[in-house]
Amino acid sequence: MKWLAGAPSILLLCGCITLTVEPRAVVYSLGGAPQVTTLKCEDAGRALHDAGNGEVAKSLDRLPLHLLIWNIHKEGDSGWQRDLAALAAASDVVLLQETVLQPEMRTILHDAGLSWVLASSFVFDADDVGVLTATRVTPLASCTQRAMEPLLRIPKSAVISWLPIARAQSDKQTGAQQTLAIVNIHAINFDLASDTYRAQLEALAGALSEHRGPIIFAGDFNTWNDARDRVVADIAARLGLSELALRVDQRAVFFGRHLDHIFVRGLEAIDVGAVPVISSDHNPVMATLLIP
Question: How would residue 53 be classed by pLDDT, with cut points 50, 70 and 90?
């Protein structure tokens, strides 16, 4: 399912992995070049305010939104390129975990017409590895968070992006800009007491505390025991999130449990499903959602 427990430590010792002091983000907009930066969540509020005061080039309309969530297993399994290309072309929002930012990945996302933000957990050789959110609509703001695995000392990351929603007639009069907040998480795995696990999710909830619009909170939650389920349930209740049920649940199962989840607020689920693949140890999960 994952790397062998000792593998990250061995890679650190051989110098293959680089951990940056500040959480590192890589941002790409169609027509431009990838930019390496730092995206702090405390700065996102100002960016949202400044962006909301101007004209937005492109917004989410109120048609069905096609969402893809997939832990792509560091692109180590045969056929991931074919499967991702097909899935990304049919999606408006793509949330990937265990992404290696190699040239093939960049090309697939570009050809699908998607801009993206990657929260780098670490750099392996020359490639950033982490959590990537790709969208057809450029976010008004994004921020990244990083949490250290207590046992392995290898970080896990998350991205929060705020996408503009097309103004309703009533909003046009007030000038209010509504946004959809999208959280893409790869949760801490090896934390027996769940303290660091809870802290990671609490930090994400804190970054959303002022957000009043709809939310998608999704990804690989590594929910492999009851204590982790309780942490996720607590955070979901605080944010007013509901988990989406799959019509036919073909999510991959680890230790008898599902690790991949989609929670939403303020959105209507039209369809939710998963597709069995051999190109990752996780099956892609897809949802069609409607913004009221």
Answer: low
Alpha carbon distance, N-terminus to C-terminus of the chain: 38
- Amino acid of residue 207: A
Confidence (pLDDT) at 45: 85
